[in-house]
Amino acid sequence: MSFQHPSFGHIADNRIIIFDTTLRDGEQSPGFSMNLGEKLRMAHALAALGVDVIEAGFPAASEGDFESVKQIADNVDGPVICGLARSAPKDIEAAGKAIKGARRGRIHNFISTSPLHMKYKLRMEPERVLELIAFGNKESRRYTDDVEWSAEDGSRTEPDFLCRCVETAIANGATTINIPDTVGFATPDEMERIFTMLKERVPGADQVIFSTHNHNDLGLAVGNTLAAVEGGARQIECTINGIGERAGNAALEEVVMALRTRHDRYGMETGIETPRLLGMSRLLATITGFDVQPNKAIVGRNAFAHESGIHQDGILKHAGTYEIMTPESVGWTSTSLVLGKHSGRAAFRDKLKALGYEGLTEETVNAAFQRFKTLADHKKIVFDDDVRALVDDESRDHERVRLTSLELQGGTQHAAQVVLDVEVDGEARHVSSTGNGPVDAVFRAIGEAFPHEATLALFSVANVTEGTDAQARTTVRLQEGGRLVDGQGSDADTVVSAARAYIHALNKLLVKRTRGEPEELSV
Which intervals of the chain form a coiled coil (predicted)? Predict the structure, then answer.
């Protein structure tokens, strides 16, 4: 590339721009939601990770989305801060106002271009779509020189028309062109062919950055992303843990480590601080209440585990026999056994730093330390994952409902009875309830303390670590109308863990009630 990008200046041809859309596309996942404080925390962490662009949200969707994009633009330094907009005046105006405070701001405008979407979703003729592409990019340039345009459902758009659309977007001010596989339909060879075609056929293609955004409906998001890079894409749109609508997006940690590990093939560089990847993954899991599966590449707890005797023998002789990257390169540590009941506050703080927890409030650290001391009295050994679980519980922001105390009685001869103390918006509430078992009694008591219409859609319990003295990690999914939220809680007492998880999910539901959803939003 020889042109000067308005935000990045001269860009070497082997430099990949990492565009993170966790806070926008990722948050559209069913059950995922973040409040303003959590979005700011994620944005600061993404900046420390080294992402180049943060798509902070969709400002026209709701007042809450506008405010979150504005606060991120005003307070997060480093990455370009981007707001999404449809090709409509109000959308673009909202995005322009929201990113105004950013040192480097971008408007990402989009419209559908496939025959299916134009006919049934937009109900527009192709010529009208071209008019709106011209308008959207021209209007966006009134607010910023950094303008991205996306062809929604681009992978199913007729090639000749896609070329006309891209040419129109470039002619009217777009500096980045994104071709998304919106429904996860494409295959890698098709994605590579699309980008090769556009770079060869479209006038001005050498003066813009081409971007790829792939959904994972067929499990091909990462493969399609890497294929697009081979076709000439130099911006990758992705999310932490691959979260996103339906089956999700290309996972940032996977595409980054694929480029790094297979540098021999791709020859590409990113600005990502890869040892922060695990911490970033766990921060998102904490905020959303949704853990990654154990066998998830890079950040799953089994990603560097070896049980087969043959594999273990090979690893002991040479790590390269069965590991293509080092655990430390993505944030895993080789030791996890460091704390016990005699460990003090200084050791606890050092452990938090080693685990990648930064920017925690004094209140959060103190609360987590007190729970650590209580746990250490019950457990001989406190593992890293135990500490993570404690801190994750205490570092959540949307606590309108807080658990104060829980007492339980029950057994084979009597119905379970629970006495529960909670705070609701700072007001203490004391309730008691019985149920068909201790967990049912707890959930009924929470419902009495804070009446709601949500129903329990999922309840699961797993150990944080091994052994009979291990903490329990409980996941609760609540459903209310079309809303789904997941909550998590941990404690050495399984029932207390369940109460924490239910209250976490309930707090997330309260956040989601206040949020509006834009019509026909995807990309």
Answer: none
